[in-house]
Write a structure and sequence with these properties.
The chain is of the alpha/beta class. It folds into two domains: 196 residues, Formyl transferase, N-terminal domain (Rossmann fold); 82 residues, Methionyl-tRNA Fmet Formyltransferase, Chain A, domain 2 (Roll). The strands form two sheets. The chain has a seven-stranded mixed sheet with strand order 3-2-1-4-5-6-7, sandwiched between helices. Strands 8, 9, 10, 11 and 12 form a five-stranded antiparallel sheet that branches. α4 links the parallel β4 and β5. The longest helix is centred in the middle third of the chain and has 24 residues. The chain starts with a strand and ends with a helix. The mean pLDDT is 94.
Length: 293
Protein backbone atom coordinates (compact mmCIF):
# COMPACT_ATOMS: atom_id res chain seq x y z
CA UNK A 1 0.00 0.00 0.00
CA UNK A 2 1.31 3.48 -0.92
CA UNK A 3 2.37 5.59 2.02
CA UNK A 4 0.20 8.64 1.28
CA UNK A 5 1.11 10.45 4.50
CA UNK A 6 4.76 10.81 3.46
CA UNK A 7 6.37 12.03 0.28
CA UNK A 8 9.83 11.72 -1.19
CA UNK A 9 12.03 13.62 -3.61
CA UNK A 10 13.99 11.13 -5.69
CA UNK A 11 17.51 11.75 -7.05
CA UNK A 12 18.82 9.26 -9.61
CA UNK A 13 20.20 8.82 -13.11
CA UNK A 14 21.31 5.32 -14.09
CA UNK A 15 19.38 2.11 -14.84
CA UNK A 16 19.53 1.01 -11.19
CA UNK A 17 17.88 4.31 -10.29
CA UNK A 18 15.00 3.57 -12.66
CA UNK A 19 14.34 0.24 -10.97
CA UNK A 20 14.44 1.95 -7.58
CA UNK A 21 12.08 4.73 -8.68
CA UNK A 22 9.64 2.19 -10.09
CA UNK A 23 9.55 0.42 -6.72
CA UNK A 24 9.35 3.59 -4.61
CA UNK A 25 6.53 5.02 -6.73
CA UNK A 26 4.37 2.07 -5.64
CA UNK A 27 5.16 2.57 -1.95
CA UNK A 28 5.42 6.35 -1.53
CA UNK A 29 4.21 9.59 -3.04
CA UNK A 30 7.00 11.03 -5.20
CA UNK A 31 6.94 14.84 -5.04
CA UNK A 32 9.60 15.24 -7.72
CA UNK A 33 12.36 13.43 -9.58
CA UNK A 34 15.78 15.03 -10.04
CA UNK A 35 17.96 13.42 -12.68
CA UNK A 36 20.80 14.17 -15.09
CA UNK A 37 20.01 15.62 -18.49
CA UNK A 38 20.80 13.27 -21.37
CA UNK A 39 23.36 14.71 -23.85
CA UNK A 40 21.73 16.00 -27.03
CA UNK A 41 23.52 13.45 -29.24
CA UNK A 42 21.77 10.54 -27.46
CA UNK A 43 18.77 9.29 -29.42
CA UNK A 44 16.71 8.20 -26.40
CA UNK A 45 16.03 9.68 -22.96
CA UNK A 46 17.53 8.01 -19.91
CA UNK A 47 15.51 5.27 -18.13
CA UNK A 48 14.72 7.53 -15.15
CA UNK A 49 13.39 10.30 -17.38
CA UNK A 50 11.32 7.83 -19.40
CA UNK A 51 9.82 6.22 -16.30
CA UNK A 52 9.12 9.55 -14.58
CA UNK A 53 7.26 10.72 -17.69
CA UNK A 54 5.26 7.48 -17.84
CA UNK A 55 4.29 7.87 -14.17
CA UNK A 56 3.42 11.54 -14.61
CA UNK A 57 6.01 12.69 -12.09
CA UNK A 58 7.38 16.24 -11.96
CA UNK A 59 10.95 16.03 -13.23
CA UNK A 60 13.90 18.41 -12.89
CA UNK A 61 17.33 18.13 -14.47
CA UNK A 62 20.62 18.77 -12.66
CA UNK A 63 23.75 17.20 -14.12
CA UNK A 64 26.27 18.71 -11.70
CA UNK A 65 26.46 20.42 -8.31
CA UNK A 66 26.19 23.93 -9.77
CA UNK A 67 22.94 22.99 -11.50
CA UNK A 68 21.65 21.51 -8.24
CA UNK A 69 22.33 24.81 -6.46
CA UNK A 70 20.50 26.68 -9.20
CA UNK A 71 17.53 24.31 -9.08
CA UNK A 72 17.09 24.57 -5.32
CA UNK A 73 17.08 28.36 -5.46
CA UNK A 74 13.53 28.03 -6.80
CA UNK A 75 12.50 24.50 -5.84
CA UNK A 76 11.46 24.33 -2.19
CA UNK A 77 10.40 20.73 -1.52
CA UNK A 78 7.63 20.02 0.94
CA UNK A 79 8.91 16.46 1.45
CA UNK A 80 10.75 15.66 4.66
CA UNK A 81 13.09 13.21 2.95
CA UNK A 82 15.11 12.77 -0.22
CA UNK A 83 16.20 9.40 -1.61
CA UNK A 84 19.28 9.12 -3.83
CA UNK A 85 20.19 6.03 -5.86
CA UNK A 86 22.70 5.86 -8.70
CA UNK A 87 22.74 9.62 -9.29
CA UNK A 88 26.42 10.43 -9.81
CA UNK A 89 26.31 14.04 -8.61
CA UNK A 90 27.73 15.30 -5.30
CA UNK A 91 24.88 16.77 -3.25
CA UNK A 92 26.03 19.70 -1.06
CA UNK A 93 25.10 20.13 2.58
CA UNK A 94 22.70 23.04 1.96
CA UNK A 95 20.53 20.80 -0.22
CA UNK A 96 20.78 17.86 2.18
CA UNK A 97 19.64 20.21 4.96
CA UNK A 98 16.64 21.42 2.94
CA UNK A 99 14.97 18.15 3.98
CA UNK A 100 14.16 17.80 7.67
CA UNK A 101 15.13 14.10 7.56
CA UNK A 102 18.04 14.75 5.17
CA UNK A 103 18.67 12.47 2.17
CA UNK A 104 19.02 8.69 2.33
CA UNK A 105 21.21 6.78 -0.12
CA UNK A 106 20.94 3.10 -0.99
CA UNK A 107 24.59 2.13 -1.50
CA UNK A 108 25.46 -1.26 -2.96
CA UNK A 109 28.12 -2.40 -0.50
CA UNK A 110 28.45 -3.14 3.21
CA UNK A 111 29.70 0.27 4.29
CA UNK A 112 32.37 1.30 5.15
CA UNK A 113 33.49 -1.23 2.55
CA UNK A 114 33.78 0.17 -0.98
CA UNK A 115 32.77 3.74 -0.52
CA UNK A 116 32.77 5.56 -3.84
CA UNK A 117 31.55 5.34 -7.40
CA UNK A 118 31.62 1.64 -8.30
CA UNK A 119 31.22 -0.67 -5.30
CA UNK A 120 29.76 -3.63 -7.22
CA UNK A 121 32.69 -3.86 -9.63
CA UNK A 122 35.23 -3.64 -6.82
CA UNK A 123 33.50 -6.29 -4.72
CA UNK A 124 34.13 -8.72 -7.60
CA UNK A 125 37.64 -7.46 -8.36
CA UNK A 126 38.65 -7.99 -4.74
CA UNK A 127 37.52 -11.61 -4.70
CA UNK A 128 35.42 -11.19 -1.56
CA UNK A 129 32.75 -13.72 -0.63
CA UNK A 130 29.91 -11.37 0.30
CA UNK A 131 28.59 -7.89 -0.29
CA UNK A 132 25.25 -6.20 0.31
CA UNK A 133 23.25 -2.99 0.51
CA UNK A 134 23.55 -0.17 3.04
CA UNK A 135 20.94 2.52 3.67
CA UNK A 136 22.82 5.64 4.74
CA UNK A 137 21.90 9.22 5.65
CA UNK A 138 24.27 11.07 3.36
CA UNK A 139 26.86 13.67 4.26
CA UNK A 140 28.84 15.91 1.88
CA UNK A 141 31.86 13.64 2.48
CA UNK A 142 32.11 10.48 0.39
CA UNK A 143 29.81 7.77 1.81
CA UNK A 144 30.62 8.50 5.45
CA UNK A 145 27.04 8.99 6.70
CA UNK A 146 25.24 7.16 9.47
CA UNK A 147 23.60 3.83 8.70
CA UNK A 148 19.89 3.07 8.93
CA UNK A 149 20.48 -0.59 8.12
CA UNK A 150 22.53 -2.92 5.94
CA UNK A 151 22.13 -6.51 4.77
CA UNK A 152 24.54 -8.93 3.11
CA UNK A 153 24.31 -11.52 0.33
CA UNK A 154 26.75 -14.15 -0.90
CA UNK A 155 28.89 -13.55 -3.99
CA UNK A 156 29.00 -16.75 -6.06
CA UNK A 157 32.29 -17.89 -7.60
CA UNK A 158 31.03 -17.21 -11.15
CA UNK A 159 29.29 -13.92 -10.30
CA UNK A 160 29.73 -11.01 -12.67
CA UNK A 161 28.71 -7.37 -12.34
CA UNK A 162 25.45 -7.88 -14.20
CA UNK A 163 24.29 -10.89 -12.18
CA UNK A 164 25.32 -9.35 -8.88
CA UNK A 165 23.55 -6.08 -9.70
CA UNK A 166 20.39 -8.03 -10.49
CA UNK A 167 20.52 -9.52 -6.99
CA UNK A 168 21.30 -6.26 -5.20
CA UNK A 169 18.45 -4.25 -6.76
CA UNK A 170 15.65 -6.31 -5.12
CA UNK A 171 17.59 -6.35 -1.86
CA UNK A 172 17.82 -2.56 -1.99
CA UNK A 173 14.09 -2.30 -2.70
CA UNK A 174 13.33 -4.67 0.17
CA UNK A 175 15.35 -2.58 2.62
CA UNK A 176 13.90 0.73 1.41
CA UNK A 177 10.36 -0.61 1.62
CA UNK A 178 10.86 -1.87 5.16
CA UNK A 179 13.17 0.68 6.76
CA UNK A 180 12.41 4.03 5.12
CA UNK A 181 8.91 4.20 6.72
CA UNK A 182 10.43 3.30 10.10
CA UNK A 183 13.03 6.04 9.69
CA UNK A 184 10.44 8.59 8.59
CA UNK A 185 8.27 7.74 11.60
CA UNK A 186 11.19 8.18 14.02
CA UNK A 187 11.38 4.49 14.92
CA UNK A 188 15.03 4.14 13.85
CA UNK A 189 18.00 6.20 14.92
CA UNK A 190 20.88 5.98 12.41
CA UNK A 191 24.19 4.72 13.78
CA UNK A 192 27.81 5.47 12.88
CA UNK A 193 29.45 3.14 10.38
CA UNK A 194 31.50 0.42 12.13
CA UNK A 195 35.29 0.49 11.94
CA UNK A 196 35.65 3.61 9.75
CA UNK A 197 39.43 3.16 9.93
CA UNK A 198 38.97 0.03 7.79
CA UNK A 199 37.10 1.82 5.00
CA UNK A 200 37.92 0.84 1.43
CA UNK A 201 37.32 2.98 -1.65
CA UNK A 202 36.22 2.18 -5.18
CA UNK A 203 36.93 4.46 -8.12
CA UNK A 204 35.24 5.24 -11.37
CA UNK A 205 36.29 2.68 -13.98
CA UNK A 206 37.72 3.96 -17.27
CA UNK A 207 37.88 2.35 -20.72
CA UNK A 208 41.61 1.68 -20.30
CA UNK A 209 40.94 -0.51 -17.26
CA UNK A 210 39.50 -3.12 -19.62
CA UNK A 211 42.79 -3.76 -21.43
CA UNK A 212 44.08 -7.09 -20.18
CA UNK A 213 47.54 -6.93 -18.61
CA UNK A 214 49.04 -10.40 -18.94
CA UNK A 215 51.71 -9.69 -16.33
CA UNK A 216 49.02 -10.02 -13.67
CA UNK A 217 48.12 -13.35 -12.00
CA UNK A 218 45.50 -15.35 -13.88
CA UNK A 219 43.01 -15.25 -11.01
CA UNK A 220 43.09 -11.45 -11.01
CA UNK A 221 42.45 -11.28 -14.75
CA UNK A 222 39.58 -13.78 -14.44
CA UNK A 223 37.97 -11.51 -11.82
CA UNK A 224 38.43 -8.51 -14.12
CA UNK A 225 36.63 -10.35 -16.92
CA UNK A 226 33.63 -10.89 -14.61
CA UNK A 227 33.79 -7.42 -13.10
CA UNK A 228 34.03 -5.58 -16.43
CA UNK A 229 31.44 -7.72 -18.25
CA UNK A 230 29.22 -4.85 -19.39
CA UNK A 231 31.67 -1.97 -19.43
CA UNK A 232 34.49 -1.38 -20.18
CA UNK A 233 34.75 -5.11 -21.08
CA UNK A 234 38.03 -7.04 -20.93
CA UNK A 235 39.78 -6.86 -24.27
CA UNK A 236 42.99 -8.22 -25.80
CA UNK A 237 44.52 -8.55 -29.28
CA UNK A 238 44.62 -12.04 -30.82
CA UNK A 239 45.47 -12.76 -34.49
CA UNK A 240 45.85 -8.97 -34.82
CA UNK A 241 42.18 -8.65 -33.88
CA UNK A 242 40.79 -7.05 -30.73
CA UNK A 243 38.39 -9.36 -28.93
CA UNK A 244 36.35 -8.93 -25.76
CA UNK A 245 36.42 -11.88 -23.37
CA UNK A 246 33.06 -12.50 -21.70
CA UNK A 247 33.68 -15.85 -19.98
CA UNK A 248 36.92 -17.55 -18.95
CA UNK A 249 38.48 -19.76 -16.31
CA UNK A 250 41.93 -20.31 -14.85
CA UNK A 251 43.95 -23.39 -15.79
CA UNK A 252 47.47 -24.68 -15.23
CA UNK A 253 47.75 -25.38 -18.96
CA UNK A 254 46.41 -24.00 -22.23
CA UNK A 255 43.60 -25.77 -24.08
CA UNK A 256 43.82 -23.82 -27.36
CA UNK A 257 46.32 -21.56 -29.10
CA UNK A 258 44.44 -18.45 -28.01
CA UNK A 259 44.45 -19.12 -24.26
CA UNK A 260 46.46 -16.48 -22.42
CA UNK A 261 49.57 -17.19 -20.36
CA UNK A 262 49.65 -14.89 -17.34
CA UNK A 263 52.31 -13.49 -15.06
CA UNK A 264 52.07 -16.35 -12.56
CA UNK A 265 52.52 -19.04 -15.25
CA UNK A 266 48.86 -20.05 -15.24
CA UNK A 267 46.48 -19.55 -18.17
CA UNK A 268 43.23 -17.75 -18.84
CA UNK A 269 41.23 -20.29 -20.82
CA UNK A 270 38.71 -18.40 -22.97
CA UNK A 271 35.22 -19.92 -22.87
CA UNK A 272 33.31 -17.17 -24.68
CA UNK A 273 34.23 -13.96 -26.48
CA UNK A 274 32.89 -11.18 -28.64
CA UNK A 275 34.62 -11.12 -32.01
CA UNK A 276 35.48 -7.93 -33.95
CA UNK A 277 32.22 -8.45 -35.86
CA UNK A 278 30.32 -7.95 -32.60
CA UNK A 279 29.14 -11.56 -32.58
CA UNK A 280 29.40 -13.58 -29.37
CA UNK A 281 31.03 -16.99 -29.92
CA UNK A 282 33.09 -19.76 -28.38
CA UNK A 283 36.88 -19.77 -28.54
CA UNK A 284 36.71 -22.70 -30.96
CA UNK A 285 34.41 -20.81 -33.33
CA UNK A 286 36.72 -17.80 -33.22
CA UNK A 287 39.75 -19.93 -34.06
CA UNK A 288 37.95 -21.53 -36.98
CA UNK A 289 36.84 -18.17 -38.32
CA UNK A 290 39.83 -15.93 -37.62
CA UNK A 291 42.98 -18.05 -37.23
CA UNK A 292 45.68 -17.63 -39.82
CA UNK A 293 48.23 -20.23 -40.75
Amino acid sequence: MKNTSKTLVFFGSGPVAADSLDFLSKEFTIEAVITKAVPSHHKLPAPVETLASKLGLKTFFASNTAELYSLFESFNPTSSLGIVVDYGVIIPSSIIDSFSLKIVNSHFSLLPEWRGADPITFSILSGQKKTGVSLMVIEPELDTGKLITRKSIKIENNENTATLTSKLIPLSNELMGEYIPLYMNGQIKPKNQPHPNRATYSKKISKSDGKINLSKPAKDIEREIRAYIGWPASYVDIFNKTIKITKAHVSAKANTNIDLKCGDGEFIVIDELIAPSGKKMSAEAFINGYAVS
